[in-house]
Every structure is written in C-alpha cells, then in structure tokens.
C-alpha cells in the first residue's frame, strides 16, 4: 500500500511540476508579498531552527502537519504543491524522510534548493539503524543550525550579518541550557529512564544517561510480552518511578508498564511535532527538567 501511495503522489508531483514550471521556476515567485523567502521544512524542529535563524526574512511552512507521526508520513497533493512553490526545502536527513528520494528529482527540476540539515553531525546508531532524532542533542542541533544558516546566507547574501547574529544567539541559548543541566546530571547516581519511544539517544549521549524504551527508533508496533517483561525488570532494578510518554505515542502500553511497576506516566516531548505551543528551546528545557526530577 505504501508503494502505491508513493507512486501516486510522484505522479501528482509530476503534473504539478508541469503546471508550475512556468511561474515557480522564477525565483521571484518564491518570495511572498512581504519579500520573505518561502521555505518548506520537513518537520517541526527543522522549522523551529530555520525560524530562529531566518527571523523576519523567511516564511516557513512545516510539511508534516501538527499532531502527525513523521516516521509514517507520506506527502499528499497539498504537501507537494507547497514544496513546489518554495524557494528552499530544508529537511532533517538521516533517513527521517523516507520519501525524499521519490521527490528529489522534481525538486531539482523546479530549482528548489534542498538542504540536508544533518550533514556533518556525529551520528548515533542502534544496531544497523541510524538514529534520526539528532535535534534532541543540544550539541548536534548546532550542526543543523550551521547548515541552515549557511544555506540562508548562500541564498540571501545581503542579509548575511542578520543570519549570523540570529545563529549566534541560537547557539548561545543551546549552550546555556546544556551548561545548566550538565552538572546537575553528573551529580546523580541514577541515570536511567524509560520512554515510550527510543528517540532520546542523542540527549542521553550529551548528558551521560541511559534510556530504555517501549517502542523502537521508528515507533514501529507494540512490544512483545518478552520485551515488556524486560522493561518491568529494568524498572524494578533501577527503581524507575516515571514512564515518559509522548503525545504521538499510543499510551496504553506505557500505562500498563507504569501500573505493573508502581510508576506514573509523565509527558515528554520528542519534538517530532509541536506540542502545547512550546518552542524548541522551551520543550528541550521541559524535557531536561522533567527527566532530571524523575531521577532525583
């Protein structure tokens, strides 16, 4: 079914490309009425970084709608139309956008600059699978920010100093938050926590923590009874009293696990979609504070 959807959407993109080629190939048509560069970002954290650096010089659309699981996202006709009308397409990379290869040729044909924001990051792997959740590292997100800043400067060199200033402010905010929590986590004896989704590997590496999760890197399916029993044993061994659950995750398994070990379920932000109207940095601060308090 997924292949059929992809083939159909590629066909739609081809038709849209023909219809838009005469107007959208002109770079001036990809600037809105206020003179802002029209940018499509694949997912929420990429859009947040782009807005932080681009400021009032950019108009950013997030391709994956709010509240939708990005791992299983397939662009529809409306999404393709937005892509074609953009000047730049900025994506996470590391396999997060499984459909990217299906549209890359059309993006190139329509003179849309594609930016891989994860180019140059220190990649984590889970077995043979690449972990795409790089934005959950306050260190590696800075690599993404630089890639995005460099792309904006290349596209709009007259505003280079503006982008550089915003970039430096974003980097400072990330470093300040990292410096606030690094010593706090170092003081803790217990550095183990359990999440609904194995999205926090980069955050764990930053702060010397260990995560166990109900579902895999790509949020595929429910755990087997054997896996669930392993999690029960892990929680009891490490005195885990909080099970973290994201808003895009199915809560039933987390609730079952929590009940089994006498823990409570607490919200955490994977940032794969925007929750509670929090910015990237607000959500990251919430995550760090909530994880820290669960380990005290």
UniProtKB/TrEMBL annotation:
| GO MF terms, alphabetically ordered | metal ion binding
Per the UniProt record, one Pfam family is ZnuA
Q: Which GO terms describe its biological process?
A: cell adhesion; metal ion transport
Using the record for this protein, list the coiled-coil segments as residue ranges, or answer none: none
Q: Report the PROSITE patterns cross-referenced here.
A: PROKAR_LIPOPROTEIN
Q: Which UniProt keywords apply?
A: Signal, Transport
What is the residue range of the signal peptide feature?
1-23
State the InterPro entries in the record: AdhesinB, Bact_metal-bind_prot9, Lipoprotein_PsaA-like, ZnuA-like
Q: Does the keyword Magnesium apply?
A: no
What family is this?
Answer: Belongs to the bacterial solute-binding protein 9 family.
Q: Which protein is depicted?
A: ABC transporter substrate-binding protein
Q: What is the originating organism of this protein?
A: Clostridium thermobutyricum
């Amino acid at each position: 079914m997924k292949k059929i959807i992809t083939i159909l959407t590629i066909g739609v993109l081809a038709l849209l490309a023909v219809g838009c080629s005469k107007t959208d190939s002109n770079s001036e048509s990809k600037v809105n009425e206020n003179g802002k560069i029209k940018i499509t970002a694949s997912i929420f954290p990429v859009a947040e970084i782009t807005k932080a650096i681009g400021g009032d010089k950019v108009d950013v659309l997030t391709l994956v709608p709010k509240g939708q699981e990005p791992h299983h996202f397939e662009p529809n006709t409306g999404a393709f139309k937005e892509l074609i009308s953009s000047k730049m397409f900025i994506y996470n990379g590391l396999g997060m956008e499984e459909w990217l290869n299906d549209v890359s040729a059309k993006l190139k044909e329509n003179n849309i600059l594609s930016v891989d924001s994860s180019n140059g990051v220190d990649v984590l792997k889970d077995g043979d699978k690449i972990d795409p959740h790089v934005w959950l590292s306050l260190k590696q997100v800075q690599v993404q920010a630089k890639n995005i800043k460099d792309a904006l400067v290349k596209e709009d060199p007259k505003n280079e100093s503006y982008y550089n200033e915003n970039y430096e402010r974003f980097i400072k905010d990330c470093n300040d938050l990292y410096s606030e929590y690094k010593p706090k986590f170092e003081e803790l004896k217990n550095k183990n926590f359990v999440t609904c989704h194995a999205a926090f590997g980069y955050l764990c590496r930053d702060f010397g923590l260990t995560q166990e999760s109900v579902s895999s890197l790509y949020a595929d399916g429910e755990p087997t009874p054997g896996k669930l029993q392993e999690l029960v044993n892990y929680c009891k061994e490490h005195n885990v009293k909080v099970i973290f659950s994201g808003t895009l995750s199915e809560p039933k398994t987390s609730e079952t696990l929590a009940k089994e070990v006498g823990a409570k379920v607490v919200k955490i932000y994977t940032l794969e979609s925007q929750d509670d109207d929090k910015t990237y940095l607000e959500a990251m601060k919430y995550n760090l504070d909530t994880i820290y308090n669960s380990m005290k």
